[in-house]
Write a structure and sequence with these properties.
The chain is an all-alpha fold. The chain has 18 helices and no strands. It has 2 domains: about 210 residues, Growth Hormone, Chain: A, CATH 1.20.1250.20; about 190 residues, MFS general substrate transporter like domains (Growth Hormone, Chain: A, Up-down Bundle). Helix 3 runs antiparallel to helix 4.
Length: about 425
Amino acid sequence: MSALTVRQVRRRYLTLYGLRWLPTGLMIPVMILLMQERGLSLPQIGLVFTAQGLLALALELPTGGLADALGCRPVLVVAAALNLVSLALFAAADSFWVFFLFFAVQGIYRALDSGPLESWYVDATLAVDPQAEYERGLGHAGAVSGGAIGAGALLSGGLVALGSIGPVSALTVPVLAAIVAQAAALVALLVLLVEQRPARGVAAIRASVVQAPRMISQAFGLLRRSRVLLALVSVELFWGFGMITFESLLPVRLTEVIGNPERAAALLGPASSAAWLASAAGAALTPLLLRWFGAAPGAALLRILQGVTVAGMGLFAGPVGVLVAYLACYAVHGASNPLHSGLLHRQVDGPYRTSVLSLNSMMAQPAAALGGVVLTAIAAAASVSTAMVVGAVVLAVAAPLYLPAWLASRRPATPVEPTAVPVSAQR
């Protein structure tokens, strides 16, 4: 690693990070619509989503131990290969169980992929220069991922607009493009990610697996010791449930108001790209929100506003109204994430930090699985608009959970007593 400079490490990290999110951008506008085209009902789509959420939840912390034992590079290579396999499954899927298998493989992929690339970047940067400021690269990564997702969504919409290619339907073409993009990401990973670490064999893997239950127990012990932290992490339960509205039901809602799934998918490409730009603009407002409202009140207000925008997506008539509400939802989403993350960081120090971030991420997984089942069932039984309004209410009622953080900010901070958190939890 000494042959690389800090700038070169950062450039490699951002390149790999962008390539990692490009296939996601290609899939966003067409995923739900293609499953409907292949014969799945909305309740069935909700059920297949549960495979991803539950597997990612179960494996999120244990897979951190694998990265510690084997290194970041092999774990990321396996993750990228699994994503390639899952995309191929999705392209060919024509039944409930094949789609269920796709989401199961996606759950394993996301658990393996969560953390190691960022850890490699920090470790590689510090190996070159122990005094280096790696925060710049971490900050740029958010912009790179947003740009990659936006570009992928824009390209996806363009590919759908071109129409079918022989026997390949218009909605399937972006999936094939995502497979090509993921193959390129895997090759780039093999070429650009260089890792120097001592060989660790079967014993290290076995030790990591054995310590996983204790690692998970200690991580959840953090929540028992802090009422503020428990409330903040609980926000993710409501957010995970409600995010199904703008991530999964929006394409169905847009198809409903337009009346044609291919036209809706073509429009969703540029709309998704614009949404990620709106998210970035929302994030840029963070300093103003902190100055005007403070972190906890601002975060609470944004949860309510996000509920309002989602309700607008469900109630506005015509594609223009739906898309305006969609863009507003992502602008609020981009503004709320930094405030929520900042509140989390204020509750922890040192070895707690990454464990808490993993727990926060984990909480959204079972909630999203439940939201996928419940909201799609409501959409099928009543209407998509009704399901979106229910999701909007769930998003908004999370606002009072920021009250403990606000009250804590008004009195002297009491640091959480440190306990031994194993390195494998720090992913």
